[in-house]
């Protein structure tokens, strides 16, 4: 019987390893464009894939782990100066919030396995899965609840969209800290404590882990690079590193002009104080822009923590199992631009001309919220948070368009950009950074 059991075990392992056949087998990977949910990111890939067999043991998660497959976590993932075994003794509990729509069960399994194996569940009040209009065969409520007593499944019978789903989940949450995740990730050991510790130091912060990669069928874990999130004038989200190199020794959290919007921690009382989000935003797109401006301009800060690591499957448009209504996304962008861009709104319309004639509703309530919060103006943001965006305002253009239509001098856009044919020169960037009240903690490079 033991031999038969081992034989079946080996068969199962071989079956899971076969999932790797569509992934590159060579070491190294060049920089590549990744389209995630309609945004273009230029993300530099790291040096190698890490292919593995099934991990059998639990690593401290304390959950009802099914012993199934997880990609191996690279040993040198975190900077050396990060604590080997991070601890958090604040006594506060976290509500993990994971909206999902048309997600494959194997990705949900990998996400949950990693949470159960690599999280101190004593810090977690609940793991909330919110099914946003899924058909019955894509809800997986019984399967999810069977994984751990702290798992809760909420079902939106009809699709409400990611924005309203997050708003409702935040109101249901019982934890004092909200931890938003996506349903196709792999959390690394010790991922949660650095975020909680930082929120203890900076209660008015939105803190993100450093994002790594779990490509394809999520059978590997690939180390990411340091950089930060920000926006172009058309509100396109980009990930960039103006210094052009990796800061592998840096273990302190560093500021980011924006958030990608899917994976971050924030205190519930600060979330409520900011009144996230605008209830008139439709379905999907723009919540990360509102969060970026509200947090920075209304008393807080956005940071990325190098000691917290989460691998994300960046889904291309061809892999997206649901439609994103582009016109509604642009409407959301216009609404946000009208509330937050002040005297710079013409720059938005220059590179988003289709938004000019769009209906966007009444923003008086949002203007009142901004006034109540005593938020700083757009000039402050350009001078103190995103100096690149200030430089880019003088150089924005539409690649491929004629000069009369605001076209660029060069036929193709600059790398990872959609509104520029050149980027801010490094020496100008460093000079501008020196003038800021608080740097990006890259002092050795300045």
Automatic annotation (TrEMBL):
Residues 1-28 are annotated as: Disordered. GO terms for molecular function: polypeptide N-acetylgalactosaminyltransferase activity. One of its GO terms (biological process) is protein O-linked glycosylation. Keywords: Disulfide bond, Membrane, Transferase, Transmembrane, Transmembrane helix. The keyword GTP-binding does not apply. Residues 1-19 have a biased composition (Basic and acidic residues). It comes from the Eukaryota. This is Glycosyltransferase 2-like domain-containing protein. It comes from Polarella glacialis.
């Amino acid at each position: 019987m033991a031999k038969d059991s081992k034989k079946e075990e080996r068969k199962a392992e071989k079956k899971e390893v076969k999932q790797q056949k569509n992934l590159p087998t060579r070491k190294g990977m060049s920089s590549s464009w990744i389209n995630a949910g309609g945004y273009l990111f230029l993300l530099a890939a790291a040096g190698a894939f890490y292919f593995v067999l099934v991990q059998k043991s639990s690593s401290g998660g304390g959950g009802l782990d099914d012993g199934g497959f997880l990609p191996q976590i690279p040993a040198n993932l975190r900077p050396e100066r990060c604590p080997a075994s991070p601890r958090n003794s604040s006594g506060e509990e976290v509500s993990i919030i994971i909206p999902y729509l048309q997600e494959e069960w194997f990705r949900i399994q990998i996400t949950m396995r990693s949470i159960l194996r690599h999280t101190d569940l004593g810090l977690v009040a609940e793991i909330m899965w919110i099914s946003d209009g899924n058909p019955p065969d894509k809800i997986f409520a019984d399967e999810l609840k069977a994984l751990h007593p702290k798992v809760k499944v909420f079902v939106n019978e009809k699709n409400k969209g990611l924005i309203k789903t997050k708003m409702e989940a935040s109101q249901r949450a019982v934890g004092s800290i909200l931890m938003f995740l996506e349903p196709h990730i792999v959390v690394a050991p010790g991922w949660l404590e650095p975020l909680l510790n930082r929120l203890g130091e900076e209660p008015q912060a939105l803190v993100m882990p450093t994002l790594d990669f779990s490509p394809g069928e999520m059978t590997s874990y690939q180390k990411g690079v340091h950089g930060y999130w920000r926006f172009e004038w058309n509100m396109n989200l980009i990930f960039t590193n103006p210094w052009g190199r990796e800061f592998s020794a840096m273990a302190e959290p560093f500021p980011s002009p924006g958030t990608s919007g899917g994976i971050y921690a924030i205190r519930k009382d600060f979330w409520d104080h900011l009144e996230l989000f605008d209830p008139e935003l439709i379905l999907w797109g723009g919540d990360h822009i509102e969060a970026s401006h509200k947090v920075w301009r209304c008393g807080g800060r956005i940071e990325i923590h190098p000691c917290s690591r989460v691998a994300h499957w960046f889904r291309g448009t061809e892999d997206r199992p649901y439609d994103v209504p582009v016109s509604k996304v642009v409407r959301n962008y216009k609404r946000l631009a009208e509330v937050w861009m002040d005297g710079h709104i013409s720059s938005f319309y220059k590179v988003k001309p289709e938004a000019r004639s769009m209906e966007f509703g009444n923003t008086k309530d949002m203007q009142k919220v901004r006034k109540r919060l005593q938020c700083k103006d757009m000039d402050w943001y350009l001078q103190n948070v995103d100096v690149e965006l200030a430089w880019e305002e003088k150089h924005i253009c539409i690649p491929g368009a004629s000069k009369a239509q605001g076209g660029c001098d060069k036929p193709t856009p600059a790398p990872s950009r959609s509104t520029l044919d050149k980027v801010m020169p490094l020496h100008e960037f460093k000079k501008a950074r020196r003038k800021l009240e608080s740097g990006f903690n890259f002092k050795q490079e300045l």
